[in-house]
């Protein structure tokens, strides 16, 4: 509408100019037909010039200069002011989303939310504080860190049982190997398995609570073929709130002598118990069940989690009756 109104007003000015010229011509012809009065020449000339000057001022002087443009030109020349505000608003929203994502990521690592379910050790209920005179039932698993049967045994039987009976057992994780004459240890799956065993024993040494050390061991065992890959160890340590520097110091202390000593003592314990297969579960110092070649064997009371939980409950009640 502004463009059309500007064009219309521009034509009105043109008509005013034409009317002014016609009036001047008419006045000139009238004066030419009249007799000349030399006495009034100066005044007439003065009056005529004043009239012309006055008439020339009839062209309107606008406070705002006219600019005629079509709608497309106007849109390109003056974009809506809201576009800038919308752009700033979008940048602000993106910044807030990025910040929220960063905070959420840090929170995940700090709280262990990203820990896979099969490696997480969280008792179903808060374990009640045990009285000083309460006796716990011994529960022990004998494993090799790079053994697939150990993975199945911990994942399918030991870890679920601990989640239900954590407050009633005294849990021990022991390792299987062969002591050597030079006070060393030979491992079935090679030196990498010995180092994996040492790392898991160091976690037990630094963090005696099974909620921490058993979760860490299960995390490593889930990818047993990669043990002792540094990235795997660091990831599992982070997931279970284990100080990776302290873990490394334990494993390398005294030129690995300290870690080898932990492994040697654990291997001797398994040997004295007569354990030769990974994974062997013992309850109350007795063989309970064996996982070997992908199968459960020698499980007279059953290989299910509920079977083991019931057996623990019976022993616990008997020991504390």
TrEMBL record:
Region (Disordered): 1-54
GO molecular function, one term: oxidoreductase activity, acting on a sulfur group of donors, disulfide as acceptor
Any one Pfam family match given in the protein's UniProt record, by short name: GILT
Tree of life domain: Eukaryota
Main location: secreted
Subcellular locations according to the entry: Secreted
Transmembrane segments: 92-110
Skewed-composition ranges (Polar residues): 28-41
Keywords assigned: Glycoprotein, Membrane, Secreted, Signal, Transmembrane, Transmembrane helix
Residues spanning the signal sequence: none
Entry-linked InterPro entries: Interferon-induced_GILT
Ranges of compositional bias, category Basic and acidic residues: 1-27
GO cellular component, one term: extracellular region
Family, per entry: Belongs to the GILT family.
Protein name as it appears in the record: Uncharacterized protein
Species of origin: Colletotrichum chlorophyti
């Amino acid at each position: 509408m502004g463009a059309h109104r500007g064009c219309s007003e521009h034509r009105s000015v043109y008509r005013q100019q034409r009317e002014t010229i016609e009036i001047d011509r008419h006045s000139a012809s009238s004066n030419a037909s009249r007799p000349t009065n030399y006495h009034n020449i100066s005044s007439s000339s003065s009056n005529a010039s004043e009239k012309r000057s006055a008439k020339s001022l009839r062209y309107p002087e606008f406070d705002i200069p006219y600019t005629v443009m079509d709608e497309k030109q106007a849109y390109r020349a003056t974009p809506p002011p809201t576009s800038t505000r919308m752009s700033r608003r979008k940048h602000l929203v993106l910044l807030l989303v990025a910040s929220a994502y960063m905070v959420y990521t840090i929170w995940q690592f700090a709280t262990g939310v990203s820990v896979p379910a099969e490696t997480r050790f969280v008792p179903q209920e808060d374990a009640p504080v045990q009285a000083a005179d309460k006796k716990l039932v011994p529960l022990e698993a004998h494993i090799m860190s790079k053994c697939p049967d150990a993975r199945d045994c911990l994942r399918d039987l030991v870890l679920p049982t601990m989640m239900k009976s954590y407050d009633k057992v005294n849990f021990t994780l022991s390792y299987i190997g062969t002591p050597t004459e030079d006070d060393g240890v030979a491992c079935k799956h090679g030196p990498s398995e010995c180092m994996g065993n040492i790392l898991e024993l160091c976690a037990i040494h630094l963090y005696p609570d099974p909620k921490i050390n058993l979760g860490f061991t299960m995390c490593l065992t889930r990818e047993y073929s990669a043990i002792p890959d540094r990235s795997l160890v660091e990831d599992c340590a982070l997931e279970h709130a284990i100080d990776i520097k302290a873990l490394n110091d334990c494993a390398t202390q005294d030129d690995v002598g300290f870690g080898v000593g932990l492994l040697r003592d654990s291997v001797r314990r398994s040997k004295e118990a007569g354990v030769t297969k990974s994974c062997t579960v013992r309850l109350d110092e007795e063989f309970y069940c064996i996982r070997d070649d992908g199968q459960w064997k020698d499980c007279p009371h059953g290989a299910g989690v509920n079977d083991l939980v019931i057996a623990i409950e019976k022993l616990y009640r008997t020991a504390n009756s």
